[in-house]
Amino acid sequence: MLLTHLKLSIRHIVKQRLFSLINIVGLAVGLASCVAILLFVRDEMSYDSFWPEGEQIHHVTWRSTPDGRGELYLGATPGPIGPLLASDFGADMDAVTRVTNSSEAVIRDGQGLPVMAYFVDANFFEVFQPSFIAGDRATALKDVSGLVITESAAQKFFGESDVLGREVHFGSGRSFIVSGVVEDLPDNTQFSYEMIVPLLDTDFIEDGHVLTESWDSIGFMTFVKLKAGVPATRFDSLFGSFLDRYAPDWGVDFVASERWKMELVPIADMHMYGPARAVYKPKGDINTVYAFVAIALLILVIACLNFMNLATARSAARAREVAVRKVLGAGRADIIRQFLIETAVMVGLSVVLALAILEVALPYLNEVLAKVLRLDYAGDPLSLAALAGLALITVIGAGLHPALATSRYLPARVLRAGRSEPAGSVRLRMVLVVIQFAISIFLITATTIVYRQLNHMQSLDRGFDAENILWVSKMSDDAVAPMQEAFKKRLLDHPDVMNAAFSWTLPGYSGRSYNGVSGVDGKEVAPMAITTRYVDEDYFTTYGTEVTNGRSFSKAYGTDAMRQKGEADWHDGAGLVNRAALDYLGLGTAAEAVGKTVQLDTITITVIGVVEDTLVDHVASGSEPMLYVNDPGSYARLGVRYRSSDAAFKDVAEGIWREMFPLVPPRMGFLDETLEAQFAADRERGFIFAVFSGLAILISLLGLYGLASFSTAQRAKEISVRKVLGARVRDIVSLLVWQFSKPVLFASLIAWPFAVYFMQNWLTRFPSQVGFDVLTFLTPSIGALVLAWLAVGGHAAFVASSNPIAALKEE
Residue 624 to residues 275, 397, 508, 613: CA-CA distances in angstroms? Predict the structure, then answer.
């Protein structure tokens, strides 16, 4: 019986080539899109889920609320937190370990080669257990001169993986003996180490302060491994008193548990639900995951509706076949089984075609998303099971309704040559077309708004000029810092260089530093915090930020700098504020602010100028109150404005760097490209939205073309009569095109309100929003309408141009 059903199914598929091809291609594109999206979602949701005993590993996150500012959610903690947690909660924790990363230089043949090194506590491998190729996990980091290297890093630096006992020399002066070799980590992890070395207090001393013991420096990621069965929620009520017990005494108004909060986030949730700041890789976005899942389901729904529509449309042509089979004894169950098997055969062919599409498309998708998505047919039975389940859902979702509808036909009515399909079938098909196009137009409209918002953010005035700026990092490196000024001078001597400026961070990038304000213009104020930027005398000229009132820093004034090079402590100095800080600090107008003082604890800063607002971090964060101070001891980056082409000048700068600092790998880039990279994730998501929106409209158009073909075939005699009675080809084409234009127009009216609702919610995350206009909604709808005309019009013109005798000769 099954073999008979299969033969009949194949015979029908071959006989109805056009409709079969449309169905198979539509389903294949829908399934391929759905699987590709689900591969992306699985990758995003599986970060750091591979660690042994991973359910016990938690990341300690840090919430800080500076006075007068919003909450900061950080992935790093102060250095003392790790040892104190181990001391207080050792009964509930198997181990607590700290991690911090650093781009180091490995000395090979007199040159410094860059390497990503993780400095960790000696018990790191008690929490994390990568697979060791060589060496002993228990003892690899017990000796402070031990170093664990990844297999790929061993090949990179030594040309082989058998490197146990080999020496490694860092540019910082530390030397190590390779004590272990571990396998490379998979891509879906927050970690990206090449070497793992023991963390020493002496490696982290800044301005005389040991950072591992300092509560001022939040720079260490802390991980705990809870004992089996201990819930992370147990510590929610304990961390407040823990902070109050150990935090430094910073005045009568300071309460540690009110200023700071600690939480335990499962290691597998760190990528998706953890903090975005002070982490080693960009975090995921659960809303994006939800959106992609929704798109996958919508595309699959469109493909299934497409199949249902064409199947029910063709059921009228097969009415006599069904009626004859019933007269010959076939039951309704036999009819349903036959149609479901036909659907299963087409879905099977669609799955094969979908896999072929995926094999071709995944490399391009991986390149765009910077991921390694793949279908492992042999080693990933879960994916194959999911694909089989998806195919089964498609068979039922796409084939059940046509099978049930067709099996209801009454033989007597059909064989009397009366109506063979229910009166509501045509209306149902139009409703399904409306739903398909409503989904497609919604996706395209949403994509249009995403791209318009991204372009709007990039066109905002940042308050500085990022073009033709080369930034150079590592200026605070021990080997570089003593020769900062000499390096700057070498660059300024080059004829293509216009200006150069030192700063702690780059404008519009690289995070924040806060200082507490306790007084303004000699009067005590409620404690507040202000974003502070450490810059030199040439900063505003180099970056093109306008000083609207007062003056900039100048070496001609010996009192501007808060300290000189080599000094450990700050003293009174000068500063500039931006316009946002005027109201925030109560300084009055820009003119009134010049000459007033701002008290930073024991340091008095005299305001010497006011500058325009600039964006602090990502464009999405907007501007905020900011204080600029002159502190030569805090310079970590150099910005250089140049005239020549990008590549040419970068080569010049790298040549000077390698000549002056041969053991320190250069780290530099272009500011405009660095800022552009802030939009990379959004652009990737926008691109994916655009691609799958386009595929959704493609599937809908395939279905529309199939329906148009069926409709014109059904109306062949009507069209011929119209031609005989004098109708022109243009009139007939207009009639058919208008028939299929109405569903697209109705779909637009349905899609627009949904697009407004969902995209308004998405836009609330941005301080400056692009807003909606008529073209945002009309353009996708008009585009869909034009494509529908093209899909229907060509076929309609062919039918309208045919000889009416061919259709009327039977009469």
Answer: 21, 53, 11, 8
